Amino acid sequence: MLNDFLASLPFMTEARADLVIGAFWPMVKAGFLVSVPLAVASFLIGMVIAVAVALLRVMPRGGLLHQTALALAKVYISAIRGTPILVQISIVFYGLPAIGVYIDPIPAAIIGFSLNVGAYASETIRAAILSVPKGQWEAGFSIGMTYMQTFRRIIAPQAFRVSVPPLSNEFIGLFKNTSLAAVVTVTELFRVAMESANRAYDFLPVYIEAAVVYWCFCWVLFFIQAKIEKRFDRYVAK
């Protein structure tokens, strides 16, 4: 029945309907088993990098070591934000073997995505930290807290609430960007679509189907994002 329905659509044939139906579950499976874990792992590692870089940039200027680390952080952010993520992943997977460093496809993709997330999210986190009034810092110092204690107990919770919406969008964008991992031979959702289309040498229906599958995944992520933001809004209102 589904095959007949698809075949009745414009530009569809029975062969195309069979192709679309056959490609659907492999794409969904790859999305759940590869694309989502790849996005989650890259996002978590990237957030560790982002928090470290953001703290480095907002903390009071220190000695030579801090100044050097700060300069390196600025170069890192500039380099990542100024180059395409596809180039970054390709350098990790295809470029590093030139100097004797060989990395498997999935770790290479995670490294590339994590570095990208770390640079962009660090700016989001830095802005969220700076949005907390300076009086909050002074209040913490006035009761004898150290810089890190004040940040952990007073500043971080407030900054976290501010950064939730943009970081949620960052994760959704990262999930879509996992399609670029196909370039380094990771068999994620889009790679499965490419392989299905290549076998039949019929690209349009499969690529449209892949777009719909990505859309469905992102719709679920949008729903989760809305729930998280609503929960935080209620928490702030209290």
UniProtKB/TrEMBL annotation:
TM segments? 33-58, 79-103, 204-224
Q: Which Pfam families match?
A: BPD_transp_1
Spell out the InterPro entries in the cross-references.
AA_ABC_transptr_permease_3TM, ArtM/GltK/GlnP/TcyL/YhdX-like, MetI-like, MetI-like_sf
What residues does the ABC transmembrane type-1 domain cover? 32-225
The record's listing under NCBIfam families reads: HEQRo_perm_3TM
Q: Which SUPFAM superfamilies match?
A: MetI-like
Q: Which UniProt keywords apply?
A: Amino-acid transport, Cell membrane, Membrane, Transmembrane, Transmembrane helix, Transport
Q: Coiled-coil intervals in this record?
A: none
Any GO BP annotation: amino acid transport
* CDD domains reported in the protein's UniProt record: TM_PBP2
Cite the GO molecular-function annotations of the record. Answer: transmembrane transporter activity
Gene Ontology cellular-component terms listed: ATP-binding cassette (ABC) transporter complex
Q: Which family does it belong to?
A: Belongs to the binding-protein-dependent transport system permease family. HisMQ subfamily.
**Bilayer topology term:** Multi-pass membrane protein
Where is this chain's protein located in or outside the cell? Cell inner membrane; Cell membrane
Reply yes or no: does the keyword Transmembrane helix apply: yes
Gene name linked to the record: tcyB
Q: Which PANTHER family match?
A: L-CYSTINE TRANSPORT SYSTEM PERMEASE PROTEIN TCYL, MEMBRANE COMPONENT OF AMINO ACID ABC TRANSPORTER
**Native source organism of the sequence:** Bergeriella denitrificans (Neisseria denitrificans)
- Protein's recorded name: ABC transporter permease, amino acid
